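REQUEST ID: PR-0412
SUBMITTED BY: lab tech R.K.
PRIORITY: routine
TASK: structure prediction, single protein chain
INPUT:
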Amino acid sequence: MGFGIGETGEVMGRLIQKLEHASANLANTSTAGYKAVHLYAVSKQANLGEAINQEFIPVVDFSPGLTQRTGNELDLMIEGEGFFVVQAKDGIFYTRRGDFTLDREGRLVTQTGDLVLGEGNRPIVIKGGPVSISEDGQVKAGAEEVGRLRIVTFDQKQGLERKANGYFASAVEGKKVDKPKVVQGAIESSNVNPIREMVDLIDIQRSFEVYQKVIQTISEEERTATSRVGRLA
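STATUS: complete
OUTPUT:
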């Protein structure tokens, strides 16, 4: 068949990676702001004159999810470019997930309790109401302005490192979005296409079956060859 066990093992390793990404995507179909990840082949040539090889890398799909209207005054989404900035125990992260709430001190936080940062990396404290948030991220409690959301973006989004809870980490600081469009009372849905993921899972399963048969055939041929050599000796 033209495959050795080594080459077949590499292919099955990639299939396992694809399976992991497809499973994670499906598991997060209902997670606000979640961005799907898929494995893509990238041509790679180390030095001049060397053969061009393919490297398979996970690529995040940063296309927007659908708008889900909730009516909750603390649910926010960003139309177009931008990420919310959050402060967790282990650093600053960026997210499109905007199903926020308030902690006991009245600070705007994520569902995991991390601070949502305003300009100057200051927490936004909301006491009183009603809460109104303008398109440019200005936050008011009643008639009092209590802060302005920090909305940033990145020139190279694929350089972001994916983390848990819909977070992304970056080695470089995000740049301010001059004219953000924040929508109050709505969240961005996951951009996972469940039909595509199910089709991918079926294809992966079929491919596994094929390559398992290939490995079985190669192993049987090697045992037969070893047996013949033993008899000749």
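NOTES: DSSP finds two helices and 18 strands in the chain.
REVIEWED BY: pending
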